[in-house]
Amino acid sequence: MDEAVRLLRAQILISNTCLEKLKAIKTTIQAENKGANIAAAVHEMEPALLELGKLEKRKQEFLARHKVSSLQAVLARQPHSAEREIAVHLLHRAQEFEESLVREIASTRFLLEKGKRYVDFNINVMTQTVASDIYNQDAAESESRRGVKMFDSSV
To answer: Which residue of 33, 81, 88, 126 could cross-link 151, Cys pair, CB 3.0 to 4.6 Å?
Structure first.
């Protein structure tokens, strides 16, 4: 039971760290500088993700030793006691952090996809826009176009 409590406490601490770092990444993406510091924010999150991976490995080893598939099953086998109640509370708290992480990851993924679509759109505009002979409404209506792209480096 003590090991399960230690694992759950560690999971809560690491999940909280990951959540804070993920929020920092999201804030960086939303910043006016269009994510110029994103690499630094992601780099700061890497150690927390490595710790989370190590913890997950320890948790899987613990579950394998007890021949169960989840911590809920381990706790269900335990008799009612104060330690079990603490462990159940920690389990619920860890699940709350996990759900928060899932929501933050989804919103961050949405922001990244939105940014990618914005970049793709601008690249498409730059590569498909054709320069007109004269930049006015009459030239645009007459379809008088050169074969040179508007943003071609040789123009």
So the answer is: 126
Q: What tokens were used for 8?
A: 């759950």
Find, among 52, 54, 59, 55, the residue nearest to 17 by Cα.
52
What was the pLDDT predicted at 135? Answer: 53
Question: What pTM, to 2 d.p., does this model score?
Answer: 0.72
The amino acid present at 69, given as its one-letter code, is: S
| pLDDT score for 128 | 73
Cβ atoms of 102 and 19 closer than 8 Å: no
- Residue 9, Cβ neighbours under 10 Å: how many? 15
| For the chain, domain boundaries | 2-149
pLDDT in tens, 95-143: 999 999 999 999 999 988 988 888 888 887 777 765 555 555 555 555 5
Query: φ, ψ for residue 31 (rounded to 5)?
Result: -65, 160
Give the ranges where the chain is alpha helix by DSSP (H): 2-30, 38-66, 71-77, 82-128, 137-141
Q: How far apart are CA 5 and CA 74, in angstroms?
A: 11
Q: What is d(CA 54, CA 41) in angstroms, rounded to the nearest whole number?
A: 21
2-149 folds as Methane Monooxygenase Hydroxylase; Chain G, domain 1 (1.20.58)
